[in-house]
């Protein structure tokens, strides 16, 4: 008995290496590859404003990846370059697909005109309506380019190819499964909007002096919060306010140039959410019995997107002859070589969303205006992820800040024409502007990302204002729980995993192959006595030799 078992083992010693050399490699070669690609993705903004839901309300994804030309059902996630989309295809995808991953250029500053146009359509659609399916954005990488190439090749059969070739291509092509494991988005009940105020008291009895208020909001906006850097809108306004603070703090530190005018500065948050920071600050200043800060206001000047060549002065009603705003407009027009045109737009009280920040102050009967390089409040550059640091020329911004500061100084000191004494203080260093611009654009500044009390950007702004101003304080706004004006959601960023998978046809083929293999093994086992009788004589012959 043991002798026969030994003979059988001799048989398999010769057969088993053949199996290892041929059968196993074949199975390993044709088996699906388990490689995975991992990269960060940014979810489309989700928020509520005055009870209206906007943006993308879903987050988790576990679907098969398809190209924009080959997807069919809601079981597919479409991945596409931004340039391959149109407004029509976007609306169709948002309504019928399972998810959408949009690939942005690696450097948003180099986006083509078509990519900018499509992205503008996406931002308008995403920031004004509610979308059911998850929509994510990713910056271009070589791995993403390979995935795009694979799915484009797999979905585009060659012209003139036969049905057999098409089946072989379908069988051999690589497929992909996308997985984004993230929690269901929940509203943030702890979100706090923080505005920062400070002042330079005028010479004399502070309560009896007139006041000029300079306001700008420091948050940015875009279709994806974690990609919203807002270099011009409104990083330029923040830099201008900080430089004006620096200039006038030097002027007010000397008795010879200490003017009898109070200067109040406000860095407001929530500017992209209907100017909630300014609204709360006004309520704090005006709706109390002992309010004295805004008793005698010459005007409120808001700064919004001033990083381009032109400047416009937006008002709710044309300033009257001889009024403070009329005088300011005359001076700034004379100061700037290109002048400043007035753009008049009435406030539509039936519309909950205001156009410009000065309208918050005009509603409270304070003379106010907004300086901006943008002529229309609907300009897409006011809320886009394309507003990166490269979109602002530091030299142009520095020149605009000098013009605004010079105009304020001429108005405050009642100086007409050029003054050497003032001009020496009005210089704005282009390198300082660039440094501030780089710093502000190193942090995404969407309001939902700035709600932490210990946010480093907010703390830096508070510290900077405290260096030059007195009575620096913050004004915190938490949305009402019963009837909130705004609601922010979490899960704005996630990690995307894309796995290589074989198509269903490959699974069918592999199933057939495994079944056939097992059937052959089963038949061999059943016929082992016959095989033994056939192979033992040959083994004995070999051993005898």
From TrEMBL:
Keywords: Endoplasmic reticulum, Glycoprotein, Membrane, Signal, Transmembrane, Transmembrane helix. Gene3D superfamilies: Zn peptidases (3.40.630.10). Residues 211-330 form the Peptidase M28 domain. It is a single-pass membrane protein. Signal peptide: none annotated. The keyword Cell inner membrane does not apply. This is BOS complex subunit NCLN. The keyword Membrane applies. It comes from the Eukaryota. It is found in: Endoplasmic reticulum membrane. Pfam families: Peptidase_M28 (PF04389). The chain crosses the membrane at residues 12-30, 504-526. Belongs to the nicastrin family.
